[in-house]
Amino acid sequence: MSQNTSRDLHAHSQATSLENSSLEEREHGVDQPQEALYRLYLAAIIESSDDAIIGKTLDGIVTSWNPAAERLYGYTAQEIVGKPIATIVPNELRDDLAVIMQQLKEGKKIDHHETIRMRKDGTHVNVSVTISPIKNASEKIIGASTIARDITAQKKAEEREQFLSEVSKVLASTLDYQTTLSHIARLVVPHLADWFTVDLIDAEGQFNLVEIAHKDPTKVQWGKELRKRYPIDPHAPSGVPQVVRTGKAELHPVVTDEMLAKTARTEEELALYHQVGLTSVIIVPLIARGNAFGALTFIYTESGKNYNAKDLAFTEEMGHRIGIALDNAILYRQVQQSRDELHAILQNVADGITVQDAQGTLIYANDIAAQLSGFSSAEAMLAAAIDNRIFSEVLSKVEMKDELGNSLSHDQLPGRRALEGQKNVQAFIQYNDTVTGQTRWSLVKAEPIFDEYGQVHFAVNVITDITEERAFEQRKDEFIRMASHELKTPITALKGFTSLLQRRLIKQGDDETSLSFLARMDAQLDRLTKLISDLLDVSKMQVGKLDYREEDFDLDALVQETIETLQGMTQTHHLQFAGQTNVQVFGDRDRIGQVLINLLTNAIKYSPQADKVIVCVSTDQGQAILSVQDFGIGIVGFHQEHIFERFYQVAEPAEKTYPGLGIGLYISKEIVRRHDGKVWVESQKGQGATFYVSLPLRSEQK
Ligand code: ADP
Fold first, then answer.
1. What is the pTM of this model?
2. Distance 470 CA to ligand 1 centre (A)
């Protein structure tokens, strides 16, 4: 034992008595008797220090070695004092040692130098060393003292922190989860595992291996095949399925033969497990939004290491981060997929489709929409939309008009109105094709899309090119106009001859039967005339050419007269008249009469089992209200919205027996609309129907 060491040990035995001396005393000057005490005190500190404290000569020979040094490096003082300090320096760091010794000779102190030393058993240990030169009384450097601290744990924590930040970086780098996972696998293997796998559960509850890593690529291939042959049993009581079921990680510090025997389904599988040579396993869940959707498995095999609780905590943290990132990536992929699908669908529909954001800026357009708006492609249209000026310039070349030929500004387009919150907006737009100059027609429908706060988020526009349909409609209307006109002439002649014949027969005092036949013929001719004039009205309405003669007329008298005329034509129904308005209405008396005739004939026609119809007039809030109530078949809600459309008839098996063209209500609605009034229906299937007409009154009558 060296002199120093024996003195240190001696000092240690004295240390307890020193603890009682006052601090003041100890800090006081170092005179002779106290100097001895001071040395003893110092020795005691060295002895009990948690840090390794080592003395060495300038040649690198160890001169003192405290118990902490023994604990750290495994050598006793006896074994190492007098030996070179190089004993504890790994071969590859010998040069480093030479540099340190040189610095000491120059009197320099080395502070908190982080390096690696070798223990007696050959293992490495991370240490932080502070080395100070020791001078004698004449200031000559005679050696050095080293204070060394084991920083393995700190290093490991730092490394893990670093590792996690690497993982986070990888996770943030891309939303392509396959790439992300293989990056992560490269970080994990071989530092944290010999084998690393990632399994995700699918909608059917099956586990899919989405990543498998090992440092040897041939083994990866082998591992994949193995998993194909032995897929994970979703009902297995432990392992990945259990971790995903419970959301709780599994740590198996030591994998025993017994455990393998329990897991293996066949002898062959068990033999394979033995071949893999599992020593330790951790399985952690991947959790996102409170739901475990997969697991990470870390396996030690050939390296023979074992996982501990710290590793578990660390890998759980990894699982947590990867879980969230993976979930985001999967959601992103799903969103992208549905967006691509939607895009493919929208590109292939025959209609133009555009989407505007809340500010009205175009954010989506398909090619058809671009074409209809004068752009070469959807890309060109969207690119132009970014620069509002270009966009308006292109659009301004397209002069737009509404159905009646009035010029339309872009602010009047349905999209704008949808952005203001109006639902179901639609407009017929005519414009001149910028290339051919031909007049084209579009039906533009816009719908607002609301966010969760009820604010308009987007407006979706569907643009249908209806030029062909329009042209066809126009030809059809023209044909109807001509046909009706042509039909009217012979009917007028027929009517004339019928009344001539009637008069003759009466004069001749002919029998009743012939006269009644003639009367029925005349009634049929009236029906025919009405049908033709209705058709003619419809075609005139289409082009806005229906004439109105406007005057003040007595509403009550008109209703009374019309009821009387129609009462004469029905034997089945009693037409009752209720109420009184005493008002004059300004408008076309004949046309309003036509509306009432339409409503009354419908009421009679659609209530074959009933025997009355009630007509009622009243005034309410500046309006004259006219209602026609029947007790017939009624109309279900869905059809009520449509019966006022042109050619619309309720096509239900029971209704098939009713003759008609589906234009009476359309004409009535148009006439009432021209009078700034409204027409609507209240009805329930099988409960009869009440049709209402409201007409505004002149202000002095209100
Ligand atoms: P139509 O010539 O077919 O009667 P309308 O335009 O007058 O044409 O009416 C449209 C459709 O509305 C009818 O076909 C019928 O199905 C329904 N309808 C009209 N009035 C009534 C009513 N009073 N009761 C039940 N259904 C009616």
1. 0.50
2. 26
